[in-house]
Design a protein that fits this description.
The complex is a heterotrimer of chains A (about 120), B (about 110) and C (about 250). Chain A is mainly α and about 120 residues long. Chain A contains 4 helices and no strands. Chain B has helices at about 5-35, 35-45, 50-75, 80-105. Chain B has about 110 residues and is mostly helical. Chain B is elongated and about 45 Å long. Classes of the chains: A mainly alpha (about 120), B mainly alpha (about 110), C alpha+beta (about 250). Chains in contact: A-B, A-C, B-C.
Amino acid sequence: MTARHLHHRHSILWIAALVHRLSGVALAAFLPLHFLALGLAVRGEASLESFLRWSDQPLVKLAEGGLIFLLLVHMLGGLRVLVIENFAWRDGQKELATIAAGVSAVVALIFLVRLF
Amino acid sequence: MNVRLYIWQRSTAALMLPLVLVHVAVIFYAARRGMTATDILARTRGSIVWAAFYGTFVLAAAIHAAIGVRNVLAEWTALSDRSAGLAAAAFGGLLLLLGLRAVAVVTLP
Amino acid sequence: MDVRRDPSAGARSSAPPQLSVSLWRGGEQGRYQSYRVPLRENQTVLDVVTFVQRHLDPTLAYRFACRVGMCGSCAMTVNGTPRWTCRTHVAKVAAGGVLKIGPLENLPVIKDLAVDMRPFFEKWQRAKGAFAPSQTRADPFAEIKPESAARIAADAAIECINCGVCYAACDSVRWNPDYLGPAALNRAWTLVNDARDAGNAERLAVLAASGGCHACHSHQSCQEHCPQALNPTAAIAGLKRRTVQAYLRGEIKA
């Protein structure tokens, strides 16, 4: 059938689940690169050091801030789901999801502010 | 996802809650001090605590990410559940391999 | 407004204000067709569909029975949202006098606004949504304390009218056609909490398998759209706990 406008996708909680999934996929894609970078130390301190200095560039720093946001938003969003699934029901999930995203953004911002 | 995969995914998630918090604290600490490779390796090499911490983290992350990737592939791609499971298991194996190698390189004396 | 250009100008006393209605016509490969329907006070979306069928096009197919929100047969997609049309007032949903009405999502379209509900009810059966008696009629009445925790949990979920609105609003269903869906799981939750039911071993095994309760992503669209204000997400969360317990105790396999 032709694509129709689906109103339920405007819900904060639907978007929260999407953010959770996309942040998870992004983190999963990042992990192998992260491990390979750390593994550079196998070729001696110097090669890890040159990587660390490369990562001092502003753009890389910015990306690190983004990764911190992804990690936190995935963790806090996951924590919200764990609480739903394992404890008595509580209302206000939209507010909690918004707070999770807000806290993640603020912490990532603090990380960046401290660096620059 | 059946109950077995669910338990593995949610238990590794719960396990990683404190690990992520510590990891983020470490990132803040290291970034703030602008640590060199020498600084980092001086702290991690020969440390059983760092090896155990990040070894656990890698293991939990590999399991958690593999199951998550499996679910995404099964729902958002044309792959069958079985193919999605195989692809995700291969990905999890890769994460485990690269992750444990990185932990070994950084923490072995 | 420029009165001279208003098509209804001058005819205000004779021609009542009109709703601009588009209805899905055809099967899966259909299209929306436009109709003009007189706007009335206290008009429901079902009234609008009925007007089209009675006065404009008798070939329009749609489904309804009770018209008072009990039978659960008249659900449709109204301006992008699944709703029970008999209890949905036009004034509440038709912003600017525009209504776009389609069949429910996530179910095969038979014709026009009528979907095939079989997959929906087959999943109720697969989820062991039928009461499995533990006693016979010769036994004395079971004494169920209304204030017991299990009965409170069952009562909170019991008023489902099988309308399929939650099923249509659920993207976990859309992305995983094997998923039992919020309504069937909500029903299973009432039985899991029914002290008189004897079917839980079999039921929990199905709920714990692929396509069972663990496919739920807690989008809460089911809760948001349920016309009975039920919370299937909470019921499914309860099932997740119960199946995990049963699995860890070795009562079911996966």
